[in-house]
Amino acid sequence: MNDDVRNIVLGVVAAGISAALGWIARTYLWRRKLRRKQAFFGLPDNSESLLVVNRGAAGPEFAVMRYDVFALLELAALIKDCNAHAQILPHDTARQGFGERTEFCVGGPASNRRMAAHLSSLLPGVRVNVDAEPSPDRGSFLVGSERYRVESGKEEYALLARLTAERSQHTRPVFLFCGQTSITNQATTRYLARHHERLARKYGNNSFVLLLKVINSQAYGPDVVEMVADVTRAAQTPLPAAATAAPRNSHRAS
Which residues cross the membrane (predicted)? Predict the structure, then answer.
């Protein structure tokens, strides 16, 4: 074997080793990223999850608002990326505990009984005005001592929460997407889809509650969302009796 042939062979071998090492490194990084995502969502390979949705106010028995359907599609893509499976349940048929399977609950308490139960038991510092009669506070959020009113199409709020049951033997989380309007439900799921890596780095597998604001949805749809505050502590602290009647501050679009 002359020098030229030897150099060619060595070059081919070196290229093959480099390609193999590169493939191994990329595969390792991809798997590590996937495992972190699965841990954050509580969705190991081939696991089952629940998508709990509210029924529409009119239409067939199992009718879902258009933007809530879009929210389900956002979540379905996340679940598929984790190599997991989803079961869709109407809010009034999901009569079971939580923690055994990851749950994604979409919709406000006025149209989603499951959401109302979660807010009552897991977030005692949150009140959502569900009065049917028109008033300035209709649909507003009370979080601790702060009230957040809705101005439809201009400034609307939503809660994004990842919660686990501390005293349960099951550790799968429940994710809440509680918006003041249907489009804010989709905006909240889209926010999670876009920022779950950052949230996982910040919170790990711990519980959190974020207050989001959807800006000018009548023009921008669910795309322009900003985080107002991390309200985990306020949301998990029971409200004093007087706070519901007389919140200290109110927030309204100007």
Answer: 6-29
